[in-house]
Predict the structure.
Amino acid sequence: QCSGLALSVRLCKPSTATALTCHRLQTPFEYATKVCSKYSEKVSGLSGIGMQLSATTDDKDRPCRIGCQDESVPYRFYMVNGEEGWFPAGTDCSRGDNSKKAYCMGGKCI
């Protein structure tokens, strides 16, 4: 038996009501840029552009956290701390790897 936080996940299609009100899904880039634009108004040195970064050997959950671009060094990104820096539950975090299906849940790639 496991101890600690337990999450259960079920893949589903949007309901008819959701489909009627939601005309288009937001891309991870669009979502991250919206978050980073808000932060760039408060924190100097950020460009306002956000990205979904690829996983590294040290950090498999990295694609589930938002990276905000440095204003002067375009290849440098700062991870947003806390829940505001998480992609929404259900965001694809497989990063183009068609051999696996992986989705963000609570800032983790599962």
